[in-house]
Inverse folding.
């Protein structure tokens, strides 16, 4: 009788402990995040600890076996991580300039300008600005605004900005219905992550990967998702997208997306970052990569004054016919700061279970670091009066084989563009793309235009903000103080 009661009590306790597994998000985190994600290394560690606990009694041989198995989990963990990185690295296609040139890309307004413009175009919206994403298929920027309230009740609106190359934006708002109350970090019933897990507990969704677009006034949230592959050495593989309708509160899971079906990435930026990280293992082994750090390539900035410091990689750009993807410049992991290669991940399409289509292009002519390039731009076009009001080089992105595009301006506006060429020359263009002059004649007197014509570089004070006008005034006074004693 006592044995039966003990059994019933044990079953009751297990049932209580298993109750959280009724929640799809908890199941996903346990089975996908811990059991599958932990892989062989976690299994060895758990078995080893259990044997140690059992062997603490009289069975000393179990204690010794447990210690051996638990210690074995350590090298297995290193080997597993290395193998998962190599698996992603091997999915990348390496090409030389003779085999395939870096594709020509379309122009866009700088990401940081769009991010700053989003707040200017959110007038009348009560909420907190979340992520901004460039939709290369539609040449627009999308920003989500989170609704305020208890338990994080969904998104308030999606702002889609059509940015001119000057940085000036025209925004379109798509408001979410009150019934559409889900978002990625929502709590309980407001959790979009939980709703995705209820479709398939194996799907992995990240807040950083979410973007939105407007479909005839209806906001659509797109969440590129992944699944884990290879239990021995688990790594993420694209698994399609989940689309959340901001009007009807409905979810749709698409395993396959063809080019042109979505205006933005069907493969997550998180996946692109994982692939980029895996290229640390290129042309090396575990010792040279992890210990000596003498092989492989990296997309991480090496200079504190790097122009692209806040947005240094995974530039979303259009190329070819309806294709767009993440462009990532790479340098050697050694001390060199020269950009030698550019990886292109095609994010315009996805097929569940298949690795992303990634090509690593070796450049015919490597380019100087971003910091050195920015300094050269300032030297070549030092006569531009806007430098005095805080104009800076804002972003340098790939434009194709032997061509790079730099945007220079002030926070929310682009004043000029510079086309950088492989031979070290450059040309200054207006923000709209009209050629003004090139570096070969940048040192000539810019006031040599016909009399009565205003130079394109002269500053119109009426276009400056109060802060910019104050900075210009201080710069003029400082320069006058420097010159007067010399007379």
């Amino acid at each position: 009788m006592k044995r039966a009661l003990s059994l019933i009590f044990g079953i009751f306790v297990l049932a209580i402990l298993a109750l959280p597994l009724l929640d799809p998000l908890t199941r996903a985190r346990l089975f996908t995040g811990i059991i599958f994600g932990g892989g062989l290394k976690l299994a060895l560690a758990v078995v080893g600890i259990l044997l140690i606990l059992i062997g603490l009694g009289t069975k000393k041989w179990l204690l010794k076996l447990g210690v051996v198995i638990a210690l074995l989990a350590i090298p297995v963990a290193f080997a597993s991580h290395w193998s998962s990185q190599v698996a992603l690295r091997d999915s990348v296609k390496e090409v030389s300039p003779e085999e395939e040139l870096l594709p020509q890309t379309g122009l866009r307004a700088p990401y940081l300008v769009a991010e700053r413009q989003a707040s200017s175009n959110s007038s009348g919206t009560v909420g907190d600005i979340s992520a901004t994403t460039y939709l290369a298929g539609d040449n627009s920027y999308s920003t989500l605004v989170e609704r305020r309230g208890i338990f994080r009740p969904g998104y308030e609106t999606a702002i889609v900005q059509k940015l001119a190359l000057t940085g000036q934006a025209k925004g379109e708002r798509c408001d979410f219905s009150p019934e559409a109350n889900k978002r990625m970090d929502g709590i309980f019933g407001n959790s979009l992550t939980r709703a995705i897990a209820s479709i398939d507990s194996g799907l992995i969704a990240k807040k950083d990967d979410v973007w939105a677009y407007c479909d005839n006034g209806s906001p659509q949230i797109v969440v590129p998702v992944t699944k884990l592959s290879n239990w021995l050495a688990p790594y993420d593989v694209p698994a399609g997208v989940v689309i959340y309708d901001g009007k009807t509160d409905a979810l749709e899971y698409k395993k396959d997306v063809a080019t042109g079906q979505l205006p933005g990435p069907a493969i997550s930026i998180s996946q692109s970052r994982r692939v980029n990280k895996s290229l640390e293992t290129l042309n090396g082994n575990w010792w040279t990569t992890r210990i000596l750090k003498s092989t492989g390539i990296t997309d991480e900035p090496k200079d504190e004054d790097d122009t692209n410091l806040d947005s240094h990689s995974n530039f979303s750009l259009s190329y070819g016919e309806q294709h767009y993807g993440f462009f990532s410049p790479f340098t050697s992991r050694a001390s060199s700061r020269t950009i030698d290669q550019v990886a292109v991940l095609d994010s315009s399409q996805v097929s569940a279970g298949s690795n992303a289509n990634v090509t690593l292009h070796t450049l015919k002519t490597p380019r100087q670091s971003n910091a050195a390039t920015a300094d050269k731009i300032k030297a070549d076009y030092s006569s531009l009066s806007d430098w005095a009001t805080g104009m800076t080089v804002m972003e340098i992105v790939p434009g194709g084989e032997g061509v790079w595009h730099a945007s220079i301006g002030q926070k929310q506006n682009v004043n000029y563009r510079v086309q950088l060429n492989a031979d070290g020359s450059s040309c200054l263009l207006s923000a709209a793309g009209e050629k003004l002059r090139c570096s070969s004649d940048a040192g000539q007197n810019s006031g040599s235009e016909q009399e009565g014509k205003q130079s394109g570089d002269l500053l119109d004070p009426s276009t400056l903000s109060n802060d910019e006008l104050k900075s210009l005034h201080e710069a003029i006074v400082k320069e006058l103080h420097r010159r007067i004693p010399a007379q």
